[in-house]
Amino acid sequence: MAPLQEGQYMIQTSSQSSARLNLQHYWVTESLGYLLHPSIPVAPDAKIADIATGTGAWPVSYSLHAAVPSSVQIDGFDVTDDMFPPADWLPSNVSLRTLDVLKPIPAELKGVYDVVCIRYFGVQVRNNDPSGVLANLVEMLKPGGYIQWVESDIYSQRVVKPTSCTLPESTALERHLAVWRRYLDASGLRYDWLAALPTHCIRHGMSEAHIYTPPSTPALRFTLTTAVLGAWEELSYNLDKDKEPDEFLGSGRELREKIGAFWREVEAGAALEQRFFVTVARK
Ligand SMILES: C[S@@+](CC[C@H](N)C(=O)[O-])C[C@H]1O[C@@H](n2cnc3c(N)ncnc32)[C@H](O)[C@@H]1O
Asked: SUPFAM superfamilies from the entry (predicted)?
Protein backbone atom coordinates (compact mmCIF):
# COMPACT_ATOMS: atom_id res chain seq x y z
CA MET A 1 0.00 0.00 0.00
CA ALA A 2 1.32 3.49 -0.88
CA PRO A 3 2.23 5.67 2.14
CA LEU A 4 -0.29 8.28 0.90
CA GLN A 5 -3.59 7.47 -0.77
CA GLU A 6 -4.84 9.39 -3.84
CA GLY A 7 -6.19 12.78 -2.68
CA GLN A 8 -4.95 12.29 0.91
CA TYR A 9 -3.28 15.48 2.22
CA MET A 10 0.24 14.81 3.50
CA ILE A 11 0.45 17.47 6.20
CA GLN A 12 -2.10 19.21 8.45
CA THR A 13 -4.37 22.25 8.65
CA SER A 14 -3.72 22.97 12.36
CA SER A 15 -2.68 26.22 14.05
CA GLN A 16 0.93 25.01 13.66
CA SER A 17 0.27 24.60 9.92
CA SER A 18 -1.06 28.19 9.79
CA ALA A 19 2.12 29.50 11.40
CA ARG A 20 4.25 27.50 8.95
CA LEU A 21 2.24 28.66 5.93
CA ASN A 22 2.50 32.30 6.98
CA LEU A 23 6.28 31.87 7.34
CA GLN A 24 6.38 30.19 3.92
CA HIS A 25 4.36 33.10 2.50
CA TYR A 26 7.02 35.54 3.77
CA TRP A 27 9.76 33.34 2.26
CA VAL A 28 8.17 32.95 -1.17
CA THR A 29 7.06 36.59 -1.45
CA GLU A 30 10.50 37.94 -0.51
CA SER A 31 12.20 35.38 -2.78
CA LEU A 32 10.07 36.21 -5.82
CA GLY A 33 9.77 39.95 -5.20
CA TYR A 34 6.14 39.92 -6.37
CA LEU A 35 2.80 38.38 -5.51
CA LEU A 36 1.55 38.41 -9.09
CA HIS A 37 3.95 38.08 -12.00
CA PRO A 38 4.46 41.52 -13.64
CA SER A 39 3.39 40.14 -17.06
CA ILE A 40 -0.20 39.61 -15.78
CA PRO A 41 -2.39 42.70 -16.37
CA VAL A 42 -4.92 43.59 -13.65
CA ALA A 43 -7.80 45.92 -14.55
CA PRO A 44 -9.41 48.06 -11.78
CA ASP A 45 -12.49 45.79 -11.83
CA ALA A 46 -10.56 42.49 -12.05
CA LYS A 47 -11.74 39.35 -10.26
CA ILE A 48 -8.93 37.14 -8.91
CA ALA A 49 -9.18 33.67 -7.38
CA ASP A 50 -6.57 32.06 -5.12
CA ILE A 51 -7.03 28.28 -5.06
CA ALA A 52 -5.95 26.16 -2.06
CA THR A 53 -5.45 29.45 -0.24
CA GLY A 54 -4.61 27.94 3.19
CA THR A 55 -4.58 30.84 5.65
CA GLY A 56 -5.65 33.34 2.97
CA ALA A 57 -2.20 34.92 3.21
CA TRP A 58 -1.97 35.56 -0.55
CA PRO A 59 -5.41 37.25 -0.93
CA VAL A 60 -4.86 39.38 2.17
CA SER A 61 -1.32 40.45 1.16
CA TYR A 62 -2.41 41.17 -2.40
CA SER A 63 -5.36 43.28 -1.29
CA LEU A 64 -3.10 45.31 1.05
CA HIS A 65 -0.63 46.05 -1.75
CA ALA A 66 -0.54 49.82 -2.38
CA ALA A 67 -0.84 49.39 -6.18
CA VAL A 68 -4.01 47.24 -5.95
CA PRO A 69 -7.26 49.26 -5.93
CA SER A 70 -9.98 48.15 -3.52
CA SER A 71 -12.22 47.65 -6.58
CA VAL A 72 -10.23 44.46 -7.39
CA GLN A 73 -12.12 41.49 -5.90
CA ILE A 74 -10.01 38.60 -4.52
CA ASP A 75 -11.68 35.29 -3.63
CA GLY A 76 -9.69 32.61 -1.78
CA PHE A 77 -10.82 28.97 -1.86
CA ASP A 78 -9.66 25.95 0.14
CA VAL A 79 -11.03 22.48 0.82
CA THR A 80 -11.18 23.46 4.51
CA ASP A 81 -11.79 26.73 6.38
CA ASP A 82 -9.64 25.50 9.32
CA MET A 83 -6.95 28.15 8.74
CA PHE A 84 -9.13 31.09 7.53
CA PRO A 85 -9.13 34.29 9.61
CA PRO A 86 -12.63 35.33 10.81
CA ALA A 87 -14.65 36.67 7.84
CA ASP A 88 -15.32 40.02 9.57
CA TRP A 89 -11.55 40.64 9.91
CA LEU A 90 -10.91 40.36 6.18
CA PRO A 91 -10.35 43.39 3.90
CA SER A 92 -13.62 44.42 2.22
CA ASN A 93 -12.47 43.16 -1.21
CA VAL A 94 -11.40 39.69 0.05
CA SER A 95 -13.66 36.68 0.55
CA LEU A 96 -12.69 33.16 1.61
CA ARG A 97 -14.81 30.07 1.07
CA THR A 98 -14.51 26.30 0.87
CA LEU A 99 -14.04 24.51 -2.46
CA ASP A 100 -12.58 21.11 -3.32
CA VAL A 101 -10.63 21.88 -6.50
CA LEU A 102 -10.23 18.18 -7.28
CA LYS A 103 -14.02 17.89 -7.73
CA PRO A 104 -16.18 19.40 -10.53
CA ILE A 105 -16.34 23.21 -10.29
CA PRO A 106 -19.79 24.62 -9.38
CA ALA A 107 -21.50 26.37 -12.32
CA GLU A 108 -21.47 29.80 -10.61
CA LEU A 109 -17.63 29.77 -10.54
CA LYS A 110 -17.10 28.90 -14.21
CA GLY A 111 -15.75 31.63 -16.55
CA VAL A 112 -15.77 34.20 -13.71
CA TYR A 113 -12.12 35.09 -13.07
CA ASP A 114 -9.57 37.29 -14.86
CA VAL A 115 -6.74 35.64 -12.90
CA VAL A 116 -6.60 32.27 -11.11
CA CYS A 117 -3.61 31.73 -8.78
CA ILE A 118 -2.51 28.52 -7.14
CA ARG A 119 0.55 28.07 -4.92
CA TYR A 120 1.99 24.98 -3.23
CA PHE A 121 -0.56 22.45 -4.36
CA GLY A 122 2.10 19.98 -5.55
CA VAL A 123 1.51 17.51 -2.72
CA GLN A 124 -1.96 16.91 -4.20
CA VAL A 125 -0.67 16.27 -7.76
CA ARG A 126 -0.06 12.54 -8.16
CA ASN A 127 1.71 10.47 -10.82
CA ASN A 128 3.10 13.56 -12.56
CA ASP A 129 -0.37 14.46 -13.82
CA PRO A 130 -1.80 17.92 -12.98
CA SER A 131 -4.63 17.51 -15.57
CA GLY A 132 -7.53 17.22 -13.12
CA VAL A 133 -6.79 20.39 -11.18
CA LEU A 134 -5.56 22.28 -14.25
CA ALA A 135 -8.80 21.61 -16.17
CA ASN A 136 -10.74 23.06 -13.21
CA LEU A 137 -8.53 26.17 -13.00
CA VAL A 138 -9.01 26.80 -16.74
CA GLU A 139 -12.79 26.42 -16.32
CA MET A 140 -12.84 29.16 -13.67
CA LEU A 141 -11.14 31.63 -16.05
CA LYS A 142 -12.80 34.10 -18.41
CA PRO A 143 -11.56 33.87 -22.03
CA GLY A 144 -8.22 35.76 -22.11
CA GLY A 145 -7.71 35.27 -18.36
CA TYR A 146 -4.42 34.20 -16.74
CA ILE A 147 -3.27 31.34 -14.52
CA GLN A 148 -0.32 31.80 -12.17
CA TRP A 149 0.98 28.57 -10.61
CA VAL A 150 3.83 28.90 -8.07
CA GLU A 151 5.47 25.69 -6.87
CA SER A 152 8.73 24.39 -5.37
CA ASP A 153 10.21 21.02 -6.23
CA ILE A 154 10.24 19.25 -2.86
CA TYR A 155 11.50 16.03 -4.52
CA SER A 156 14.89 17.41 -5.49
CA GLN A 157 15.51 19.66 -2.48
CA ARG A 158 19.10 19.54 -1.25
CA VAL A 159 21.24 20.45 1.74
CA VAL A 160 23.55 23.46 1.54
CA LYS A 161 26.22 24.50 4.06
CA PRO A 162 28.17 27.74 4.44
CA THR A 163 31.96 27.57 3.97
CA SER A 164 32.43 28.05 7.73
CA CYS A 165 30.36 24.92 8.51
CA THR A 166 32.15 22.09 10.33
CA LEU A 167 29.44 19.44 9.84
CA PRO A 168 30.58 16.16 8.23
CA GLU A 169 30.14 15.50 4.50
CA SER A 170 27.07 13.31 5.09
CA THR A 171 24.54 14.82 7.49
CA ALA A 172 21.40 13.27 9.00
CA LEU A 173 19.44 15.74 6.83
CA GLU A 174 21.10 14.43 3.65
CA ARG A 175 20.47 10.81 4.65
CA HIS A 176 16.83 11.72 5.36
CA LEU A 177 16.40 13.31 1.92
CA ALA A 178 17.31 9.96 0.30
CA VAL A 179 14.59 8.21 2.34
CA TRP A 180 12.17 11.11 1.76
CA ARG A 181 12.47 10.64 -2.01
CA ARG A 182 11.62 6.94 -1.63
CA TYR A 183 8.53 7.93 0.44
CA LEU A 184 7.50 10.44 -2.27
CA ASP A 185 8.08 7.83 -5.00
CA ALA A 186 5.87 5.32 -3.18
CA SER A 187 3.17 8.02 -2.84
CA GLY A 188 3.23 8.88 -6.58
CA LEU A 189 4.71 12.28 -5.73
CA ARG A 190 7.25 13.10 -8.44
CA TYR A 191 7.70 16.72 -9.48
CA ASP A 192 8.76 16.23 -13.13
CA TRP A 193 5.38 17.71 -14.19
CA LEU A 194 6.48 21.12 -12.91
CA ALA A 195 8.95 21.80 -15.73
CA ALA A 196 6.33 20.51 -18.20
CA LEU A 197 3.48 22.67 -16.84
CA PRO A 198 3.47 25.11 -19.82
CA THR A 199 2.98 22.12 -22.16
CA HIS A 200 0.10 20.87 -19.97
CA CYS A 201 -1.43 24.39 -20.10
CA ILE A 202 -1.31 24.50 -23.91
CA ARG A 203 -2.89 21.01 -24.01
CA HIS A 204 -5.69 22.37 -21.82
CA GLY A 205 -6.52 25.06 -24.38
CA MET A 206 -4.38 27.94 -23.08
CA SER A 207 -3.07 30.14 -25.90
CA GLU A 208 0.31 31.00 -24.35
CA ALA A 209 2.36 29.74 -21.41
CA HIS A 210 5.70 30.73 -19.90
CA ILE A 211 7.76 29.28 -17.08
CA TYR A 212 10.11 31.24 -14.84
CA THR A 213 12.74 29.69 -12.57
CA PRO A 214 13.74 32.44 -10.14
CA PRO A 215 16.99 31.99 -8.18
CA SER A 216 16.79 31.24 -4.47
CA THR A 217 17.86 33.88 -1.96
CA PRO A 218 20.65 32.51 0.29
CA ALA A 219 19.73 34.88 3.17
CA LEU A 220 16.28 33.24 3.30
CA ARG A 221 17.52 29.63 3.45
CA PHE A 222 16.93 29.31 7.20
CA THR A 223 13.39 30.63 6.79
CA LEU A 224 12.66 27.95 4.21
CA THR A 225 14.37 25.27 6.33
CA THR A 226 12.24 26.19 9.36
CA ALA A 227 9.10 25.85 7.22
CA VAL A 228 10.18 22.45 5.81
CA LEU A 229 11.06 21.02 9.24
CA GLY A 230 7.67 22.25 10.46
CA ALA A 231 5.92 20.44 7.60
CA TRP A 232 7.79 17.22 8.42
CA GLU A 233 6.73 17.55 12.05
CA GLU A 234 3.08 17.88 10.93
CA LEU A 235 3.56 14.76 8.81
CA SER A 236 4.95 12.96 11.89
CA TYR A 237 1.68 13.65 13.76
CA ASN A 238 -0.22 12.12 10.83
CA LEU A 239 2.02 9.03 11.08
CA ASP A 240 0.97 8.70 14.76
CA LYS A 241 -2.53 7.80 13.51
CA ASP A 242 -1.25 4.74 11.55
CA LYS A 243 -1.21 1.32 13.23
CA GLU A 244 2.15 0.37 11.66
CA PRO A 245 5.29 2.52 11.25
CA ASP A 246 5.70 3.87 7.71
CA GLU A 247 8.04 1.71 5.60
CA PHE A 248 10.31 4.66 4.83
CA LEU A 249 9.79 7.29 7.53
CA GLY A 250 9.16 5.00 10.52
CA SER A 251 6.73 5.95 13.28
CA GLY A 252 5.74 9.53 14.09
CA ARG A 253 7.92 9.43 17.22
CA GLU A 254 10.93 8.18 15.23
CA LEU A 255 10.51 10.93 12.65
CA ARG A 256 10.28 13.57 15.42
CA GLU A 257 13.52 12.23 16.94
CA LYS A 258 15.20 12.60 13.55
CA ILE A 259 13.82 16.14 13.23
CA GLY A 260 15.48 16.93 16.58
CA ALA A 261 18.82 15.88 15.00
CA PHE A 262 18.06 18.00 11.90
CA TRP A 263 17.53 21.05 14.10
CA ARG A 264 20.96 20.54 15.69
CA GLU A 265 22.48 20.41 12.19
CA VAL A 266 20.59 23.57 11.22
CA GLU A 267 21.98 25.30 14.32
CA ALA A 268 25.43 24.20 13.08
CA GLY A 269 24.79 25.84 9.67
CA ALA A 270 23.01 23.29 7.44
CA ALA A 271 20.01 24.48 5.44
CA LEU A 272 17.65 23.24 2.73
CA GLU A 273 17.37 24.60 -0.78
CA GLN A 274 14.46 24.09 -3.21
CA ARG A 275 14.03 25.02 -6.87
CA PHE A 276 11.12 27.37 -7.68
CA PHE A 277 8.87 27.34 -10.71
CA VAL A 278 6.40 30.09 -11.65
CA THR A 279 4.16 29.27 -14.61
CA VAL A 280 2.03 31.98 -16.20
CA ALA A 281 -0.46 30.95 -18.90
CA ARG A 282 -3.22 32.78 -20.80
CA LYS A 283 -6.57 31.24 -21.80
C1 LIG B 1 0.81 23.75 1.20
S2 LIG B 1 -0.75 24.52 1.50
C3 LIG B 1 -0.59 26.01 0.53
C4 LIG B 1 -1.49 27.13 1.00
C5 LIG B 1 -1.40 28.44 0.21
N6 LIG B 1 -1.62 28.23 -1.20
C7 LIG B 1 -0.09 29.13 0.42
O8 LIG B 1 0.76 29.13 -0.48
O9 LIG B 1 0.12 29.71 1.52
C10 LIG B 1 -1.87 23.53 0.55
C11 LIG B 1 -3.32 23.86 0.76
O12 LIG B 1 -4.09 23.04 -0.13
C13 LIG B 1 -5.31 22.77 0.50
N14 LIG B 1 -5.95 21.65 -0.20
C15 LIG B 1 -5.62 20.34 -0.15
N16 LIG B 1 -6.44 19.61 -0.93
C17 LIG B 1 -7.30 20.49 -1.51
C18 LIG B 1 -8.38 20.35 -2.44
N19 LIG B 1 -8.71 19.15 -2.91
N20 LIG B 1 -9.05 21.46 -2.83
C21 LIG B 1 -8.71 22.69 -2.33
N22 LIG B 1 -7.70 22.87 -1.45
C23 LIG B 1 -7.00 21.80 -1.04
C24 LIG B 1 -4.91 22.49 1.94
O25 LIG B 1 -6.02 22.58 2.83
C26 LIG B 1 -3.86 23.58 2.16
O27 LIG B 1 -4.42 24.75 2.68
From this structure: S-adenosyl-L-methionine-dependent methyltransferases
